[in-house]
Structure formats: C-alpha cells, structure tokens
C-alpha cells in the first residue's frame, strides 16, 4: 500500500513538473523577446553601435547578452565578454577605496583634505574628504579651456585643479565634480604610497576575480576591447583622443565587462570588501549646510519608483556610456554598457528592470491636486515657447544659469512636439518642499518630469529625464 501511495505521489509530482516546464520556458522566452525587442528598438532610435547588458538577481546573472557591434570598422559583434569603458561608474570604486582607508583609520571623512594633500589654496582649506565624495566641495568640472590632449603628472594635475576657483562654500549645495574625484585619486596615492589604480587592482579587482577590470590603456593589447564612437554632423566617428594620463584618473577611467560588474554587484550584498556600516554611509543621502539632503552618497545616486529604492550611477567618457541600477528591495541589478557618446544607458537599464519586474515600471497614481498638474502643464507649454515667467522659480534657481538652462529645455521640448498625455506617477514631500513626478508623452517621444515646489508655490528644482 505504502509503495502504491509513494508511486502515485511521484507520478503527480512528475506530471506537475511536465506541466510547469513549458509554462516556465514560455515565460522566459517572452521575457527574452521583450528585452530583445526593446533594446534593438532603442539602439536604432539612439543610433547605438553596440550594447552589452546583464541582469543580476540575488547576486547571480540571469540574463547576459550583447547586441550590435563593438567595432564597426571590423564588424566585430558585442558579447557579454566585450570590454567597455566605465565613465563615472568608476567613482564608486574610488569611493570604496577611500572607505577602506577609513576603516583602517588612515583617513577621516570629516578631516580637511589638506591633512592628506599638504598645502592647499585658501579656497580649499575647509574642504573635507566627505565633501569630495559627495560632490559638495564647491569644486567644479573640467573647465572649457582644459587641454585633454596634454599629459600631466599627478602633481601638475592637482596644481591645475587648485587653480580653478570653487563655485561655492563647502557643503553649501550639491554640484557634480569630476575634479573632486580626480583629487580623491591623488589623496589615495599620498596616503597609501600606491597609485590609486594599483590600489583598486590589489584590494578590489583581484579579490573579486574581476579579471578584465583595469585602468584604461590604449597602448596595451586588450582582447575583446570595444571601440568608442560619437556622432558628428549626423555621421558616426571614432572617439576623440585624450592623453594617456587623463585616461587614468579616479573620476572614471576603467575598463570592465558586464560579467565583472555582476561580480561587483554580488560583493555589495555582503562584507567582502567593506563593513555594512561603511556601505550604509556610502548609500546615505548627503546633508547640506542648510540641513536639507540631496539624493547622492559616495559615488552613488539614489531614487525610487513605486516605493522601490534604486541605488544607481551612470557614466560617460570618450565615446562610451554606462549604467548600473541596483533595485535593492528586489535584489535585482541591471548593467548596461554602450559605445556611443550621448547614449542613454539609464533608459535601457530601467526599462529592462521593469520587464523583469513590472512593479518597477512607472504607473499613474491618483492625482489629488489637479490644479497643480494644470499649472505644471501650463509651465511646460511656456518653457517650450521660451516665455516662462522667471518669478515662477526660486531666487536660487534664477541665479544658477537660469537663462542657459531654460534655453536648453526649450530646444528639447520643441523637438518633442506637443503633449499628448501627462500622468502623475510620483508625489512626496521632502525638506519642506512638495515633489512631483510626471510621465509625459509627447508627439515625438516621452520624458519623465521631476520637480519640487516650495510652500510659496515656487519651482525649486526641475528636470526632464529620458529614462523610460
């Protein structure tokens, strides 16, 4: 009798598996097709030569694929093993190196950088390590007259950076600064006696077996290396050349593959490299002098969608763009690398995440403030025409290159055509301001609009993002 029951139960289990497998395979095929169709359509729209994509779930790769060409001249196709440039994704490795030194007691986040760099200009004297990590130092990006074809020694590069006047006092506001991360690379060298790239190789890349990840070198023979491109007068051209030393700085000058980045992602779930308390500091929004916060930590930016947190960063450098998005509540990560300057890897990455988990797609929510939505739509129309009232914005926004930014927005909106649909998809309150997110469909495309409004109904921040 027992044998009969066991046999019958085994038969039921086998039958269930037979029924399950076709359904499971069909679901996988549908997901693969949806990803392929979207990536290929987006490559055509953005004119991307090649894309490498990986999706990681619970620290394991569940999807990895290459699309298009890594080298257009030789018609070499992209594969997951293809090596791309990191751009500013490299900043998270620089930040990790600094935090390793913090854990070892060799660096203090709130110490003035002069302790580690030596004598600095008066304008740099109140800058701390934390300010550099969080882009709140007041340091700027590379100036318009910076010579990217000149080779600099590390000391020369630091001296050149120190000659650029800061835009504001440390901690006063947030402003992205490549110069700040270049300075962190110099700081790592001075503290450890090692070039920061050697430190990364010894302390991060080798332990994680990230075998293709390294500092850029165009002179070395590197198998599977992609070529970078940009579009000039509507034609695809090879990337601009920059000097060898400027391809080794700590603001983002690495080679890697999506496969190596999957190993990096897996390591961030544990304490292989850093204590969880250190990682938590890296993933905490920076607090400014006025006690308001900005959604950026140490080499990582933060956002959310439908209540799901995203820790993410993009990169762009020398004919390449990149994106890593860690949807931490879902233990899902998407990594996208392409070889075209101006490519929108973030849009691809976020949309692919929504294919694997529909909860990560933007959805319309109940609009309890229709009068605000109407006013914002009217503002978008005025921005398109270039006649938005400056008094609709805060004094801080008006003082911060207002005319240049509104001209840029007007060009963008005119190219998109009239609005055909506008849905509220996010609504929150932060630092005394009301935050709104709208998914806007235009005749010629779509954009996500995020803005914040003060209690006096002044626009304090506004951005159109092409991420879905």
Strand % is 15-25%
Shape: globular
Widest sheet: strand order? Answer: 3-2-1-14-13-12-11
Rg over CA atoms: 24 Å
Average pLDDT, to the nearest integer?
92
Ends apart, CA distance between termini = 60 Å
Structural class: alpha+beta
**Biggest sheet character:** 7 strands, antiparallel
What is the tally of helical segments? 13
Identify low-pLDDT runs.
Answer: none
DSSP E strands, number: 18
Helix percentage range: 25-40%
Describe the structure.
The chain is α+β, with helices and mostly antiparallel strands and 468 residues long. Helix content is 36%, strand content 23%. The protein contains 13 helices and 18 strands. A seven-stranded antiparallel beta sheet has the order 3-2-1-14-13-12-11, with helices on both faces. Strands 15-16-17-18 form a four-stranded antiparallel beta sheet, with no helix packed on it. Strand 6 and strand 7 form a beta hairpin. The longest helix has 45 residues.
Write a brief caption for the model:
The chain has helices spanning 2-46, 91-103, 114-117, 129-134, 154-162, 178-192, 196-205, 258-267, 276-282, 345-356, 370-385, 395-399, 402-416; strands at residues 50-57, 60-71, 76-77, 84-85, 214-215, 229-232, 235-238, 254-256, 286-287, 293-294, 301-305, 308-317, 320-327, 332-338, 419-430, 433-442, 445-453, 459-465. The protein has 468 residues and is α+β, with helices and mostly antiparallel strands.
């Amino acid at each position: 009798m027992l044998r009969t029951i066991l046999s019958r139960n085994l038969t039921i289990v086998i039958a269930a598996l037979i029924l399950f497998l076709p359904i499971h395979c069909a679901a996988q095929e549908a997901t693969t097709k949806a990803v392929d169709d979207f990536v290929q359509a987006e490559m055509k729209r953005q004119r991307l030569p090649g894309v490498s994509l990986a999706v990681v779930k619970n620290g394991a790769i569940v999807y990895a694929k290459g699309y298009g060409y890594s080298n257009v001249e030789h018609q070499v196709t992209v594969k997951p093993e293809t090596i791309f440039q990191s751009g500013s994704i490299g900043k998270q490795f620089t930040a990790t190196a600094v935090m390793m030194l913090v854990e070892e007691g060799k660096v203090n986040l709130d110490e003035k950088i002069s302790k580690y760099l030596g004598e600095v200009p008066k304008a740099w004297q109140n800058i701390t390590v934390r300010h550099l990590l969080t882009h709140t130092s007041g340091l700027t990006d590379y100036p318009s007259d910076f010579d990217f074809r000149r080779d600099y020694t590390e000391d020369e590069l630091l001296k050149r950076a120190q000659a650029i006047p800061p835009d504001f006092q440390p901690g006063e506001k947030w402003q992205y600064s490549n110069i700040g991360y270049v300075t962190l690379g110099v700081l790592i060298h001075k503290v450890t006696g090692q070039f920061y790239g050697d430190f990364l190789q010894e302390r991060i890349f080798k332990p994680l077996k990230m075998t293709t990840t390294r500092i850029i070198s165009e002179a070395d023979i590197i198998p599977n290396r992609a070529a970078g491109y940009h579009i000039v007068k509507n034609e695809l051209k090879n990337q601009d050349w920059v000097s060898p030393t400027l391809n080794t700085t700590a603001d983002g000058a690495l080679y890697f593959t999506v496969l190596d980045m999957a190993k990096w992602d897996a390591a961030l779930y544990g304490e292989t490299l850093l204590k969880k308390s250190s990682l938590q500091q890296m993933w905490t929004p920076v607090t400014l002098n006025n006690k308001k916060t900005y959604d950026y930590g140490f080499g990582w930016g933060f956002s959310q969608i439908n209540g799901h947190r995203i820790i993410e960063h993009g990169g762009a450098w020398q004919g390449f763009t990149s994106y890593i998005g860690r949807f931490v509540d879902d233990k899902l990560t998407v990594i996208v690398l392409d070889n075209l300057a101006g490519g929108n890897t973030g849009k691809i990455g976020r949309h692919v995440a929504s294919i694997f988990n529909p909860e990560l797609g933007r959805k319309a929510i109940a609009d309890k403030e229709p009068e605000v939505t109407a006013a914002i739509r009217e503002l978008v129309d005025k921005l398109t025409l270039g006649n938005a009232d400056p008094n609709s914005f805060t004094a801080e926004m008006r003082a911060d290159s207002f005319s240049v930014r509104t001209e840029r927005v007007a060009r963008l909106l005119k190219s998109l055509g009239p609005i055909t649909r506008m849905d509220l998809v996010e609504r929150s309150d932060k630092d005394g301001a009301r935050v709104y997110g709208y998914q806007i469909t235009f005749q010629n495309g779509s954009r996500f609009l995020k803005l914040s409004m003060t209690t006096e109904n002044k626009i304090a921040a506004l951005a159109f993002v092409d991420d879905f």
